[in-house]
Design a protein that fits this description.
The protein is 28% helix and 24% strand. It has one domain: L-arginine/glycine Amidinotransferase, Chain A (5-stranded Propeller), CATH 3.75.10.10. The two termini are 15 Å apart. It contains twelve helices and 17 strands. The chain is α/β, with parallel strands linked by helices and 356 residues long. A four-stranded mixed β-sheet has the order 1-7-6-5, with helices on both faces. A four-stranded mixed β-sheet has the order 4-3-2-17. Strands 8-9-10 form a three-stranded mixed β-sheet.
Length: 356
Amino acid sequence: MTEKKNPASLGYIMPAEWEEHAGTLLSWPANSETWPGERLEKVEKVYVEIVRALTSCEPVHLIVSGKEIEAKAKNILKKELPESAPVIFHNIPGNDVWARDFGPIFIKRDVDGKREFAITDWEYNAWGGKYPPFNDDNNVPDWMAKEFGLKSFKTGMVLEGGSIETNGNGVILTTKSVLLNPNRNPQLTQVEIEQKLRDYIGHGKIIWLNNGLAGDDTDGHIDDLSRFLNENTILTMVEENPSDPNYQALSENYELLKSASDANGKPFNIVTLPMPKTKIEGTTVDGSEYVPASYANFYFANNAVLLPVYDPRHDHKAIQLFKKYCPERKVIPIPCADLVWGQGSIHCITQQLYGL
């Protein structure tokens, strides 16, 4: 059911990712342009570990596009997972794996003591039309609303889930390099974009960072840069080498966060992690010598944190930081060098679901 009013006026807001999920949306990798040759088999192995970790916490809703892909995914997972693992297969058309960006962004409200969830359905254009076709992925939120009988609010604005981050208590983090990029919404001003976020996400304060990582074909998603660990604590990535291409952007973002405040005007607790190695041998499919490898691309599952790891110099420090700030959750490190070669990591391929 599509609603015409803006959801904020009805009391809806986007929950923080650490709130309890009904499940996680994934899409099984099958795009040979993203994962050419032996790359596909390598990334399937990473998917097995991610699905294994997730199904120990919550159901996985897995998009499989076509009978062959469905059969292959079922065969691989049957060999690797216990029979009781909660994986729900959805054979619907899809283009690629980036469920964070094309998937539904859920919002919530309380009415008469009962929690209600709805979907915000944003337009998805594969980061400015970089990787057509993307129409099947763009249809996923509408399919999910109909499949599960959820209210849906169509926004008419291009927005990817990886471009916004909320503490669930009044604040949104985002980047100018993405939301103000003319390849998304050239007809909208910054003021108009901010109003759209307030109308559909429901949080009033928007903190703008500047630029993203080298090799990030999304133009600079926030989920590779800075993420909330709780309502008052922000993890932000830093680069220690002044000659590294990420040094300036991450330094600028760090300074912006140090002067930022929450919805009540209080400063945040800012914690940092050093960047893992991002330069690769050879190039990715779009010719980049760098990949957006980042510890900020973690995912809060129920009772766990799925943490991508890449670099023995810094992996242990990242694991210890998450154990400190998420003591009630199991920290599950997952090697993601093969996944991030496709220019995204754990957070990029997951989207939390509610109210199913």
